[in-house]
């Protein structure tokens, strides 16, 4: 019952809902309280071998380049991912910490967060 009340209230403020699908990703564009949101769910290249990070980053670039919500751009509707105020990426992103398993756990146990962040592929 509580969820239905939230959804019915939110429905009054939920504008355009558009989705775009590419191989390995689906993106949803919507406006909530006049704020354009984009949700991107994707599965990026996995693996720890040389070149896999480059492939993951290339996957992201392709998703950004090829995702088009509205081919005929209108003032009130975002055309691409970067045209939104809020962008949320989730899914199996496969980014890693560029350290061995043992070294990573050692840094965690010593709470050396800066060294972990320095080796994080996402940052």
TrEMBL record:
Domain Inositol polyphosphate-related phosphatase: 23-122
Signal sequence, renumbered to the chain: none
Molecular function terms from GO: inositol-polyphosphate 5-phosphatase activity; phosphatidylinositol-3,4,5-trisphosphate 5-phosphatase activity; phosphatidylinositol-4,5-bisphosphate 5-phosphatase activity
Family annotation (InterPro entries): Endo/exonu/phosph_ase_sf, IP5P_plant, IPPc
Keywords, alphabetical: Hydrolase
Keyword flag Isomerase: no
GO aspect biological process, one term: phosphatidylinositol dephosphorylation
Origin: domain of life: Eukaryota
Family per record: Belongs to the inositol polyphosphate 5-phosphatase family.
This protein's name: Inositol polyphosphate-related phosphatase domain-containing protein
């Amino acid at each position: 019952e509580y969820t239905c009340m939230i959804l019915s209230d939110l429905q009054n403020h939920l504008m355009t809902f558009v989705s775009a699908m590419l191989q390995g990703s689906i993106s949803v564009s919507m406006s909530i309280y006049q704020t354009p949101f984009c949700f991107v769910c994707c599965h990026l290249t996995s693996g720890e071998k040389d070149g896999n990070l480059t492939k993951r980053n290339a996957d992201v670039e392709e998703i950004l380049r090829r995702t088009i919500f509205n081919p005929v751009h209108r003032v009130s509707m975002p055309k691409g991912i970067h045209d939104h105020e809020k962008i949320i990426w989730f899914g199996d992103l496969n980014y890693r910490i560029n350290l061995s398993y043992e070294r990573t756990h050692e840094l965690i146990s010593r709470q050396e967060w800066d060294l972990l962040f320095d080796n994080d592929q996402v940052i």
